[in-house]
Specification:
It contains two helices and three strands. It has 111 residues and is of the alpha+beta class. The longest helix has 27 residues.
Length: 111
């Protein structure tokens, strides 16, 4: 849901204060304000956006302006689906990769 136009975008004051104190190449700015919008003044800075466990580095570009910091630092990690069939398919793919590498190694040794 977007914010009312009369209110304007929400930009955390602490984040803006950190941005004004630094230069774009001074390192990572650690922030916890995931709901804060990205302002045009933040382009070129690298932010460490907290995801609940660690800080994910996000380099702000022009096309990110107007989005929220939380959009670029996912809080959940996808664990792939599968089971017995998925495991068998992965093992078959791994075996095919190994055999292809051995075949390539054998042809290189013959030359």
């Amino acid at each position: 849901m977007t914010r009312s136009l009369k209110k304007g975008p929400y930009v955390d004051e602490k984040v803006m204060k950190k941005v004004t104190k630094r230069k774009p190449n001074d390192g990572v700015i650690k922030i916890w304000a995931r709901a804060s919008s990205i302002a045009p003044e933040m382009v070129g800075y690298t932010f460490g956006v907290h995801n609940g466990k660690s800080h994910e580095e996000v380099l702000v570009t022009e096309d990110m302006v107007g989005h929220r910091f939380g959009e670029f630092s996912p809080t959940t990690k996808f664990v792939k689906h599968g089971g017995k069939m998925q495991k068998e398919a992965e093992q078959a793919a791994k075996q095919a990769e190994i055999s292809a590498a051995q075949a390539a190694k054998g042809t290189a040794a013959k030359k």
